[in-house]
Write a structure and sequence with these properties.
The chain has about 350 residues and is α/β, with parallel strands linked by helices. Helices cover about 45% and strands about 20% of the residues. The radius of gyration is 34 Å and the shape is elongated. The two termini are about 45 Å apart.
């Protein structure tokens, strides 16, 4: 059992407060009665049975208030048991986490822009629902960072955790990443899979165009997203956000990086896909999703049973109403016998 709105528990202080008010009211009534009749006569005018009936009514009202508060806390228990039909696509993000993605030709750096683009895509998929999201990060080697899942919160967490610090091999192998994505995520359904490659386009002879052509033959859609400024080269910081840490140097010379949109455009054309780019700000992949993916055919996934707990607040509302009706009956019975 759990409560979806447990902060409402603080309203339970109303229950003892009501009992205190009833006790005060009973005492004031006895004091008022004592002011008009003799003490021995008061016992006959207001017998003990009347006190018991009064407290019973008070407990009914307090119990009803407690039930309403518990209902406001939205108690849940037991499985919902609802079969959920699932229709959607597999959407896999290939995120470049090579050291060149730390370049600061876009603010704050290319990797942060790439994450912002992937995050906007995840939010659009979450709104639409049904699709599975996966994340593969790559530099010199590619690794599955998040398996295909409908747990969009997990995807977003794994996305935030992706950094250049976890790179096992330096360099950038875009072609190897594409081929690894086809192998690592199991059997991808032709016509129902979208790969989104987010990179600055730098590659170290991994045959990316041939990998894109392979996707075309497999009927897997490819969208390439360029991050960085294609019009200038910039040094590569040794670490993201490390003030004064310096820049990468090779053979005594400062290493510079320039976003290569030409490769990304060529890959998109080879795969029959599209290129999304822009030198300022993150690509709006939520808008791209609405225009390019939302209307695509979706395949049927195996139905699953809803494992969410079923809401049960109705029981407490019903019990509260029963207690209030009982209190009204006792109050009317008292009035009729008076």
């Amino acid at each position: 059992m759990r409560f979806a709105a447990w902060p409402a528990v603080y309203l339970l202080v109303l229950v003892p407060a009501l009992l205190v008010l009833f006790a005060y009211a009973f005492r004031r009534r006895r004091q008022a009665l004592a002011a008009f009749v003799a003490r021995d006569l008061a016992q006959r005018v207001l017998p003990a049975a009347s006190d018991r009936r009064g407290w019973t009514r008070a407990l009914c009202v307090a119990g009803a208030a407690a039930c309403f508060v518990v209902a406001l806390m939205q108690p849940e228990w037991g499985p919902g048991g609802q079969e959920l039909p699932l229709r959607g696509r597999d959407v896999i993000v290939l995120l470049d986490v090579s050291h060149s993605m730390l370049a600061e030709d876009v603010a704050p750096n290319r990797l942060a822009q790439a994450k912002a683009a992937a995050r906007s895509l995840a939010m659009a998929v979450r709104r639409d629902g049904g699709h599975r999201l996966g994340l593969l990060t790559f530099a010199g080697r590619a690794d599955v960072h998040c398996p295909l899942t409908r747990d969009y919160g997990l995807f977003l967490k794994r996305l935030e955790d992706a950094t250049t610090d976890g790179v096992a091999r330096r360099g950038t192998s875009i072609g190897a990443a594409v081929r690894q994505a086809v192998r690592a995520f199991g059997e991808l359904e032709p016509g129902y899979t979208d790969l989104i490659l987010i990179s600055d386009g730098e590659d170290h002879q991994s045959l990316p165009l041939e990998a894109a052509q392979m996707l075309s033959m497999l009927e897997i859609d490819l969208t390439t997203v360029g991050v960085g400024d294609p019009n200038r080269s910039v040094p590569i910081p040794i670490a993201a956000g490390a003030a004064g840490a310096g820049y990468l140097v090779h053979d005594g010379e400062e290493v510079r990086s320039q976003m290569r949109s030409g490769l990304l455009v060529g890959m998109a054309e080879a795969a029959g896909g599209v290129y999304v780019g822009g030198q300022a700000g993150p690509a709006r992949l939520d808008q791209w999703y609405d225009e390019q993916v939302a209307g695509k055919p979706r395949r049927e996934f195996p139905s699953v049973t809803n494992k969410e707990l079923a809401p049960r607040y109705g029981y407490f509302v019903l019990l509260a109403i029963v207690l209030l009706v009982l209190e009204m009956i006792m109050r009317n019975a008292r009035g009729s016998t008076a």
